[in-house]
Specification:
With 415 residues, the protein is an alpha/beta fold. It folds into 2 domains: 23-53 and 302-413, Aspartate Aminotransferase, domain 1, CATH 3.90.1150; 66-299, Aspartate Aminotransferase, domain 2 (3-Layer(aba) Sandwich). The protein is 44% helix and 16% strand. The chain has 16 helices and 14 strands. It has helices at 3-20, 66-79, 87-90, 94-107, 118-129, 144-151, 165-174, 198-207, 230-233, 263-272, 274-278, 284-299, 302-320, 340-352, 382-398, 406-413; strands spanning 29-30, 37-41, 49-53, 111-115, 135-139, 156-160, 181-186, 211-215, 242-246, 257-261, 332-338, 355-356, 359-360, 370-375. The strands form 3 sheets. A 7-stranded mixed sheet has the order 4-10-9-8-7-5-6, with helices on both faces. It has a 4-stranded mixed sheet with strand order 1-2-3-12. Strand 7 (181-186), helix 8 and strand 8 (211-215) form a beta-alpha-beta unit. It is globular, with a radius of gyration of 22 Å. The chain starts with a helix and ends with a helix.
Length: 415
């Protein structure tokens, strides 16, 4: 048998097994700009359909904002399309420095370093800062990119129970002999939408002379009174040692990320972080657009305030409709279904109702915690939200889950 035939036999069977369980992630193509209303080709080869998008990270609705598009064009014309180099050789323009300065001011830190993505920032920061004599103590539900970055670092790795500060304190006491201790957490956890208790965590880090790193990708731009992030929300601005965040969600939605925080830690990343040293610089087009985004959200909280209203309104309506929803205050609203096939089937039926959402299941979320994750945007209008809730009510009624709690849904469909 040819080697290619062996590959197809072994791995083709695995793909067919995924399909047979109803868990296959089908191809979808957006054929329009990212916005509240989009045109989607689904399934592949079908005519495009206009639907309401409730699963994008476009929290502030800036992905297609005319001022952002205009700034991108200006950046293209004045600084070109790409840098054809890494940052430390000839890949740093004056506008890269300008964006870093604006992010530093916006986040309330001492210095900032741009990366091609927040995943790259998370991949580089731990190895650059920590060594064998140190320890990383992470919340057990941190983002996959943080886990990947931690795996690249030689420091000892330990965990604490999700958002359990008493357990965290025990771990800090346990590792008191280490040269440096770094607590690692998301600011807003991307699958559940819950907020890490940063005020308590920072107090513990200060008590035990430890650092804290916060990935604020699902918070930068809209959490806190002026959208600075979870550190603003909890009143600990200036007390976070390292913030990693993205330009690919609320802050324009293209790509790019950063490490921002204590000057010495950022400088270590500039000197040693491998994704910074060996990846091409962020495109001038994205840098110019991101500068405009920071300017827009620094002048007014109008979009952040609208998102807050949309979030509260949707949470009230979807709960009243009888869906099983995780409580919270962020625009990440998990509609809990617990069964992976049910999540996939309901998402498909929601699409038929003109609502674009996706089912999430293991390994993206823990086994038995399948869901449809709804994400609100400042681009959504009240009528969009009403239509989404009504679709959930109709589809939920079809599957007989309205008014059921976790045990009721599991009894009906299993885990």
């Amino acid at each position: 048998m040819a080697y290619s035939d062996t590959v197809r036999k072994i791995f083709g069977q695995e793909i067919e097994e995924i399909k047979s369980r109803g868990l296959y992630k089908e191809k979808r193509f957006i054929c329009s700009p990212q916005d509240a209303t989009i045109r989607v080709e689904y399934p592949e080869g079908a005519e495009t359909t206009e639907v309401l998008n409730f699963c994008a990270n476009n929290y502030l609705g800036l992905s297609s904002h005319p001022e952002v598009i205009k700034a991108a064009r200006e950046g293209l014309e004045s600084r070109g399309y790409g840098m054809s180099s890494v940052r430390f050789i000839c890949g740093t323009q004056d506008i890269h420095r300008e964006l870093q300065t604006k992010l530093t001011d916006f986040l309330g830190t001492e210095d900032t370093l741009l990366f091609p993505s927040c995943m790259d920032a998370n991949a580089g920061v731990f190895e650059a800062v920590l060594g064998k004599e140190d320890v990383m103590i992470a919340d057990r539900l941190i983002h996959a990119s943080l886990v990947d970055g931690i795996r690249l670092c030689s420091a000892e790795y330990d965990t604490f129970k999700h958002m359990d500060t008493k357990h965290l304190e025990k771990k800090l006491q346990q590792h008191s002999d280490k040269r440096a201790r770094m607590v690692v957490t998301d600011g807003v956890f991307s699958m559940d939408g819950d907020l890490a208790p940063l005020d308590e965590m920072v107090a513990l880090c200060e008590k035990y002379d430890s650092m804290i790193l916060v990935d604020d990708s699902h918070a930068s731009g809209f959490i806190g009174k002026t959208g600075r992030g979870t550190h603003e929300h909890f009143g600990v601005m200036g007390r976070i040692d390292i913030i990693t965040t993205t330009l690919g969600k609320a802050l324009g939605g293209a790509s790019g990320g950063c490490v921002s925080g204590r000057r010495e830690l950022v400088e270590l990343c500039r000197q040693k972080a491998r994704p910074y040293l060996f990846s091409n610089s962020l495109s001038p087009v994205i840098v110019a657009a991101s500068i405009r985004v920071i300017d827009l959200i620094s002048k007014t909280t109008e979009r952040r305030d609208k998102l807050e209203w949309n979030t509260k309104y949707f949470r009230e309506r979807i709960t009243a409709a009888g869906l099983n929803v995780r409580p919270g205050e962020t625009p990440i609203v998990p509609v809990m279904l617990y069964n992976a096939k049910l999540a996939n089937d309901m998402a498909r039926d929601m699409y038929a109702e003109g609502i674009y959402v996706i089912g999430f299941f293991f390994p993206v979320v823990p086994a038995g915690a399948a869901r449809i994750r709804v994400q609100l945007s400042a681009a959504h209008e009240k009528e969009h939200i009403d239509k989404c809730v009504e679709a959930f009510r109709k589809v939920g009624n079809k599957y007989g889950i309205l008014g059921l709690d976790k045990n009721g849904i599991i009894e009906k469909y299993g885990m």
